[in-house]
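Sanity check record (used in CI):
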Amino acid sequence: MPLTLHNFLFNVYPYLCGAVFLMGSLARFDRDQYTWKSDSSQLLRARQLRWGSNLFHIGILFLFFGHTVGLLTPHVFYEWIITASNKQMLAMISGGIAGFICFIGLSMLLHRRIFDPRIRLTSHRTDLAILIILWVQLVLGLVTLPFSYAHLADATDMLILADWAQRVVTFRPDATGLLHVAWPFKVHLVLGMTIFLLFPFSRLVHVWSGFATVVYLVRPYQLVRSRKLNVPAQAQPGKKQA
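Expected output for Respiratory nitrate reductase 1 gamma chain:
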């Protein structure tokens, strides 16, 4: 990969995707709230949808929070509890299991969309596109496991990827270390950022509603009226004045 393209993809592209992700989601919510939904097809082949959806959501949530915590936690915060090598092994085992579960669920959902004529007719092109992209991203994630295992002794891949991610979120981008990682990691990163780029234009925006339900659980009670109002007799309906 040319150095110029490498620097763009890993030093500039993350901020481009992040800006579109945030501003695009806000614009979608402000202008097209009626499209802010998951477009469920649960009335058709409900059993396959139930299994596929549950497996997919369980796996993808674990992977999302696992990647977030694993990449954005500095090594110094956990080195006194677990070594980098053991942490990488833990990430490989737990991430591999979650990825396989998510892969099965997503494959079932993708099968419904493609091979059921009724569901295919009611599906938007973006529905199929985002499912295919997520499926390819999962495959790439599973492909990286053997490469991670090859560097398990020193955990270099995990440390390089974490250092890059932490520099991006702290606005100190430096993709020099990524020059030395295997190609599946690089493609996995680029496709992951692209998913955030496409997020506001797909059905994935309903994820925001999922986070909103958590906020709803801890919101304060809505105070409708603090005290009983004393309405004068002459103003009360149904009463005749003397």
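The helical segments are 3-31, 46-72, 84-115, 117-121, 125-150, 156-169, 183-198, 206-217. If this sentence no longer matches the regenerated tokens, the check is flagged for review.
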